[in-house]
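Final report, Chapter 2: Outcomes

The project's central promise was a pipeline that accepts a single protein chain and returns its three-dimensional structure in a standardized token representation, suitable for archiving and comparison. That pipeline is now operational. To close this chapter, we reproduce one record exactly as it appears in the project archive, with the input sequence first and the structure output second.
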Amino acid sequence: MFMLMCGSLSAQSSTDPYRMVDPRIGTAHDGQTYPGVGVPFGMTTWTPETQRTEGKCIAPYYDKDPKITGFRGSHWLSGSCTQDYGSVTLLPTTGALKLAPAERASFYSHASERMSPASYSVFLQDYTTLCFSKITIHQPSGRTFKIEAYGNSPHNFFVQSASLNGRRLPSPSFDHQEIVKGGKLSLQMGPALSELAFETKREE
């Protein structure tokens, strides 16, 4: 499971325009859009990558592609036929190190994708476990921010619930200042796909 998040979200009503956005629109055929996670008018947007090239008129993501090669920090102009440039692609993996995009690419299902303007998550079928059980981020201020995954196993790779400093999170995002202040993010893992604040569901 991989998740990209940007910004902080508060509880919102079903009529909020934010919830009416479907990032998938235009990702098939010649729409040349992509499901970017970022802030309005941001210079860099994070997106799942199904096309590993920065070639002209090739968007980072196409709905028809069967594999994700990583998650790209992109400068692509959504809906255009320009060229991406200066991008960087990351992909969390398990097992043997695979650097070539074609080798590390993972199959995925559109049914497992959850998209919104502020978050993206997907289940990578070739990497069926969370990549870590515990991570500690050491900050220049001397403070630390810890992330722990409880119950993580080859069968428990979906986040069931999350809490920040003992407070249950109703959504998959929180303000960056929470990391700066230091603390602990606890993830409870389980075998079933959770509905933890998935902002947009794909209609199959």
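Archive annotation: The radius of gyration is 17 Å.
This record, like all others produced under the grant, will remain available to the consortium after the project formally closes.
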